[in-house]
Amino acid sequence: PVPDVGRYRLYMETEDCIACDQCARICPVDCITIEKVKAVEELGTTSDGSKKRFWLPTFDIDMAKCCYCGLCTVVCPTECLTMTKTYDFSEYDREIFIYHFGNLSPEETRAKEAELEAFEAAKRAAKEAAIAQEKAAADTTVPQDKKPPVAPPAGIKPPAAGPPPSIKPPVTPPTGIKPPAGPPPGTRPPAAPPPGMKPPAPPAGIKPPTSPPPGIKPPLPPKPAAPEDPAAENTSPDA
Hints:
two-stranded antiparallel sheet; 3-stranded antiparallel sheet
């Protein structure tokens, strides 16, 4: 007899598959191939109530590669993938070991891909139009600093123009009194020479000394003449 927990040929219930790819990712020998197309319409639910969101053009299991580990059946969330009791399925052609469980033909797959592309394009266009509309509305909105002033409620007078109450205006002198002229208190006026006195001038005919140009030494003063000897004056050759 065949045991109920034996690991034999795999089988997949297509109507319960949600195309989650968990079985293909966990397979150690990559014997499961899945291709899916996102649906733009409602596909219903599986037998356990899970919502279906993808068409399944390709779900192939290559039993020639399978190592019968059973990991794919363990991770399947809807339990659509199981191992049957069929243990004798020898073939003469290796291609026969590839089992196809997809639910779309190649023509139907191309049609679903075109529907998805048109749906995504319309979605992008609607999003761009909404962004442009929001931007146009923001441009026409009056800025906060440019809004007209709000009128005060009835019965409340607006504040009078002028300086705030805490700032007093400058005091003006009474009529007929002139303000004091001169420097402010606490400052001394500049000292002036006594009347009738002129600053001393240099003597006539004497020019003030000028300093020589840089790098030139001033001339030395002349040496004084030697005094004449009175004895020499009284001496004559006839004496």
